[in-house]
Write a structure and sequence with these properties.
single chain, about 270 residues, ten-stranded mixed beta sheet, two-stranded antiparallel ribbon, about 25% strand, globular, binds S-adenosylmethionine
Length: about 270
């Protein structure tokens, strides 16, 4: 199954990415172009739609572009993060079960992992449903390289796309499902990304969201406020629900534990 994306430069131009690019067992290097002639490089299967463009970033975002963060992120932090953040035993398997239950990935359907880092969610979806198509998107090359390494080891095939989630390089109603794990808090323009998510999801699609909310405990809140200086934002559940609604989503299920909030969204 090849992948069709929208040219980042020309709104109506499409680019077809051959299916071999998702095959992590073989290194794919080459150039793709739209019918308008704008070209993009694929190197070691990572599709770079950003080129050499410099994206303005907060401190939190730029730390994801360090090789060391990418190397330790999943095994040292991510697998334990929910237990640390909820203050109780919260194995990653529990989060994964919830994702699969709410998303219910099906054969031939198309899913997007937004701000994927090491593509923890994207790899999980593909493992659960090998007949579907998965795109994992991030603007950090270092994170995508780590995602590629992990996907190759696990023999999981997916498209790894370097792009800015504020300007999703896809046509409207492309995806049957979207997933976003922890990225909302890091975005410089979360509403823009939510509006873009609404544009690219099909009307019967599902959006699995995991984000962190404001703590009711004063000293944790103090820490969250200072994290704001580094570029992280926390909202109350009500505030983030208002954002989801404003972007055109309805909340059909929600579950919070400590400062971790899982939400199942569908287009309103
Ligand atoms: C908290 S991490 C995501 C973790 C991952 N989803 C998971 O569940 O393990 C946030 C990621 O979003 C990416 N990111 C932040 N802003 C972005 C943007 N505007 N476009 C694309 N990626 C972005 C960062 O590079 C980082 O890898």
């Amino acid at each position: 199954m090849s992948l069709e994306v929208r040219s980042p430069k020309y709104e109506r131009a499409s680019i077809t990415i051959p299916s071999e690019v998702a095959d992590m067992q073989k290194s794919f290097n080459g150039t793709i172009c739209s019918n308008k002639g704008d070209e993009y490089v694929i190197s070691n299967n990572i599709i770079n739609l950003l080129g050499d463009e410099q994206v303005e970033m907060t401190w939190a975002q730029s730390s994801n572009h360090w090789k060391v963060t990418a190397a330790v992120y999943e095994d040292i932090w991510r697998k334990r993060s929910l237990s640390i953040l909820t203050g109780e035993e919260f194995p990653i398997s529990k989060e994964q079960e919830l994702l699969i239950e709410w998303l219910d990935p099906r054969p031939q359907k198309v899913y997007l992992d937004i701000g994927c880092s090491t593509a923890l969610y994207g790899r999980l979806i593909k493992k659960e449903q090998p007949q579907c198509k998965v795109v994992s998107l991030d603007f950090s090359r270092q994170m995508l390289e780590e995602a590629r390494f992990k996907a190759e080891v696990e023999q999981t095939d997916l498209y790894l796309l370097r792009a800015d989630a504020r300007y999703m390089p896809f046509f409207g109603a492309t995806f049957d499902g979207l997933v976003m794990g922890g990225t909302l808090n890091e975005l410089t323009d979360p509403m823009k990304v939510l509006y873009e998510s609404r544009r690219i999801i099909k009307k019967d699609g599902v959006f699995f969201m995991m984000h962190l909310i404001k703590s009711p405990t004063w000293y944790i809140r103090l820490m969250q406020d200072s994290a704001g200086l580094g570029g992280l934002t926390f909202w109350t559940v009500e505030e983030s629900n208002q954002m989801f609604n404003r972007a055109g989503f309805s909340i059909v299920d929600q579950f919070t534990k400590g400062i971790v909030c899982f939400t199942k969204l569908v287009p309103a």
